[in-house]
Amino acid sequence: MPWWTAAGEQAGADEMNPPNVPARGGPGLPQIRRLVTEIPGPRSRALAARRAGAVARGVGETLPVYVHAAGGGVVVDVDGNSLIDFGSGIAVVSVGNAADGVVAAVREQVGRFTHTCFMITPYEGYVAVCEALNRLTPGDHDKRSALFNSGAEAVENAVKIARSATGRAAIVVFEHAYHGRTNLTLAMTAKSAPYKAGFGPFAPEVYRVPLAYPYRWPTGREHCGEQAAARVIELVRDEIGAGEVAALVIEPIQGEGGFIVPGRGFLPRLAEFCADAGILFVADEIQTGFARTGTMFACEDEGVVPDLITTAKGIAGGMPLAAVTGRAEIMDAPQVGGLGGTYGGNPAACAAALAAIGFIESADLAARARRIGELALPRLRALAARYDVIGDVRGRGAMLALELVRGGGDTRPDRELTGAVAAACHRRGLIVLTAGTWGNVLRLLPPLVMDPALLLAGLDVLDEAFAEVTAAR
Ligand SMILES: *Cc1c(COP(=O)(O)O)cnc(C)c1O
């Protein structure tokens, strides 16, 4: 009986041979959108019913099609529908889903050994990933890295390392920030519902300051970066106390917070202030890293060199891996045994990362990301010219977003409209994600290997979705 058959259901000939379901995924899958049932189809709905009886409801879902295979820029569900993937599993499969090199590297590794725990008996893959991170992250100073399982775990460890290295406690974070869902990272994450509501108390000594948010800066975009930096510096100096602050942690382009690209000058000014005040500048590049924004790391755009950088998501082609990389003297501050974890830097995840990183470099996926931006941004701007509910078009490379508002000059966020456009995309077989403190941002994160024709086909679907939803209002 195929694994996607609902429990207890008798598998007939039809279940044994579902239509259009490929035997395997990877880049060989036809890079097309093709719908053979409604979305979600009957097999997905059967699995959703099983899910409801088995999985805690707190684990949300965006689009309940159950995946059978995926490859390149498409996801094929258990009903045989082929969907265009503008989500990459949240900026993870930048190298394409089930990329050949990643699959081969993982197979080879798990055939030799699956786990030893790097803290017990080490292996080369972990060291090689750290070497790659030390080489690729901004700055040519001496660096060290440590590996973990998830982005949140990397952020937690960056805080531990920063406190250990500075002997200070306070951590400065920003409005709209997202740093994860563990207790310390929830203190650092901005948005209440659904992330934080009911889960407190949160860790102390985390202070939130304004972000240079060009679209909504009171005096307009032009001086947003410098004015916001001045305000942050004032708050840190006069209210938090610069001498108390271990680290300032910032996403160079915010992810879950709505793909907000800080006003120019904001990041360099803050980095300069931090250097003067003995505060560590920590770039959370978990979503922006590994070529997503058109450079290997997003801080490179304004020449910012962070003291510590956290990475995860795009690092390993879909395998769970995360890292903290930074100045050797800072990274080496914690005592021996103070960092680590049972699975951190799992050998299969390291093998996947080496394959993914090798591919990102050799295929110049940063250039592919820039190309995606060049193809998509004019299309998104043309859309914004036609629909005044699109208040802002922003992003860089293959990290792009539309902020949706009431329209007609009213810039109040429109969450309902955003949900309706996303749902219209989903019904048409386009996976798009939403984001933003007010849930009013549509975000596009295609795999960097996406075929340009498929990208444009996906943008056509987005256009149709806007036409449908705005006509119905
Ligand atoms: C996703 C994300 C995290 C958390 O990563 P997980 O792997 O989900 O724990 C932290 N920071 C940023 C910027 C992210 O996008």
From TrEMBL:
PROSITE patterns linked to this entry: AA_TRANSFER_CLASS_3
Organism field: Frankia alni (strain DSM 45986 / CECT 9034 / ACN14a)
Cofactor: pyridoxal 5'-phosphate
Pathway the protein acts in: Amino-acid degradation; 4-aminobutanoate degradation
Alphabetized UniProt keyword annotations: Aminotransferase, Pyridoxal phosphate, Transferase
Keyword flag Transferase: yes
Protein name: (S)-3-amino-2-methylpropionate transaminase
GO BP term, pick one: gamma-aminobutyric acid metabolic process
Lineage: superkingdom: Bacteria
Gene designation per UniProt: gabT
